[in-house]
Amino acid sequence: MARIRVQGTEVDITTYPSETMLDALKRTGNAIRVGCRRGGCAICKVEVIEGTFEYTRPIADKVLTEEEQERGTCLTCRAVPTSDMVVSLEGHHERVNTLLTFFQQHAQNQAG
Ligand code: FES
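# FE2/S2 (inorganic) cluster complex -> structure
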């Protein structure tokens, strides 16, 4: 079990053994937006401020840039904490909105 705190919020949750960060957030009513849930789209990514995690199931090779991997960005749908963690959701919703705009424009282009 590990604790996950979300920087700048009151969110402070305890995970179950082998539980992904996404499942823990969702179980406690703190779900964030997600896409594929299989480590392939990066919609669920967050910045890790403190703590460690592991991927117990594979993620897509190029879904995170080298820079993101180095600074601790993780895919919450696959990441299982291996210590207490502090994460930042800053920029999360803006990134999701950018992706939604892209997909909406793509859908409009396909239709028209
Ligand atoms: S939801 Fe797609 S990578 Fe996590």
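# post-check
The mean pLDDT is 87.
The first helix runs from residue 21 to 27.
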